[in-house]
Amino acid sequence: MPIHIVKQAADEQCCKRIRPMRDSAESEPPKNPVAEAVGLPDAPVLTTRAARDTGMAFLELNCERRNAGLSSVCEDAFVVALQMRTCPDFDLYSDGRLIQPKNFDVGAVAIFDLRTELTADLRDPFHAIDFYLPHKALVAMGEDGDIPRHIEELRHTPGATVRDPIIRDLLLSMRPAFAARPEETPELFVDHVALALSIHVAHKYGDVAALPQRWGGGLAPWQERRAKELLEAHIVGGISLNVLARSCELSTRHFTRAFRQSTGIAPYQWLQFRRMQKAKQLLESSSASLSAIALECGFADQSHFTRTFSRAIGITPRKWRRTRRE
Predict the structure, then answer these.
(1) Are 110 and 174 spatial neighbours (Cβ–Cβ below 8 Å)?
(2) How far, CA to CA in Å, does 224 sit from each of 68, 260, 266, 286?
(3) Main-chain phi, psi angles of 162, to 5 degrees
(4) What is the 3-state secondary structure (H, E, C) of the chain?
(5) How many angstroms separate the CA atoms of 235 and 267, rounded?
């Protein structure tokens, strides 16, 4: 997604800043300066608490109109954008020098440094899934040992794109989450994808020779027990990877890798599995309504429970309960 970026003087205070992730009790949806800059302030945004709650976010920008015009944003951040639609007609300038954009085709990935002086005039409709990566998130990951050192730059050519199947697939995996209601989006899943994507980007484009090899094994017994206890206690949601990792005295990346090695699945998958187990137990042993079971097992409502259960088990909860009681 081409973006118009105007670099502000250091003493100016007009640069927009990303809002922190909202609490579940807040009704106002999260905003993102990139979405606001391109004239799509209501675009879906999923902000993650991974990397010390530094504001990493996913957003889907879909503009059907032509000649969207100029926009501006000034942020200490990068954007990694997956093109969902070919967008050949726009002008891009870097420090006042015209750059001819190349290969902004479906499936291509572009990196934008929001700290540089870039200008783009958007004439074509555009559609992109973006990953908003603040520089302070890279700093936090370096301090936590998720990457071996701090990264100041991401290698890229302004106006050019690359083919990166890992970035493509990770960003595409967020599309169902964008379409779902906020209460149906697992926070652990968003954290997991953000962490995986940021580490890949840092490793491939941030001049990092190799990721650290510490914590090569799985969780220690006390760590696995503690993590599962916390997940069980938050079966209705509301726990982040950061909290789980700190409880095990590990960085988020090390915890995620060790948990998968110990259990065979990611933390959010383990939590979903336990929700299914609890739901089955309640369906079989209690006379509680489907709506009550849905809420007790951490689903947004009965319809969310039915859809998730049907995908996982192959039949609806009502039919499953009936078969167990025949």
Answers:
(1) no
(2) 51, 10, 12, 30
(3) -130, 165
(4) CCCCECCCCCCCCCCCCCCCCCCCCCCCCCCCHHHHHCCCCCCCEEECCHHHHCCCEEEEEEECCCCCECCCCCCCEEEEEEECCCCCCEEEEECCEEECCCCCCCCCEEEEECCCCEEEEECCCEEEEEEEEEHHHHHHHHHHCCCCCCCCCCCCCCCCCECCHHHHHHHHCCHHHHHCCHHHCCHHHHHHHHHHHHHHHHHHHCCCCCCCCCCCCCCCHHHHHHHHHHHHHCCCCCCCHHHHHHHCCCCHHHHHHHHHHHHCCCHHHHHHHHHHHHHHHHHHHCCCCHHHHHHHCCCCCHHHHHHHHHHHHCCCHHHHHHHHHC
(5) 12
The yes-or-no verdict on residue 265 having pLDDT over 50 is yes
Does residue 90 contact residue 103 with C-beta atoms inside 8 Å?
Answer: no
Over its C-alpha atoms, the chain yields an Rg (Å, rounded) of 22
Contact between residue 78 and residue 112 where contact means Cβ atoms under 8 Å apart: yes
Residue 308 has pLDDT above 80, yes or no: yes
9-18, 91-100, 234-243: the lowest-pLDDT one: 9-18
Report the mean per-residue pLDDT for the chain: 82
Report residue 95's pLDDT band, with 50, 70 and 90 as the boundaries: low
The answer on pLDDT for 88 being more than 70 is yes
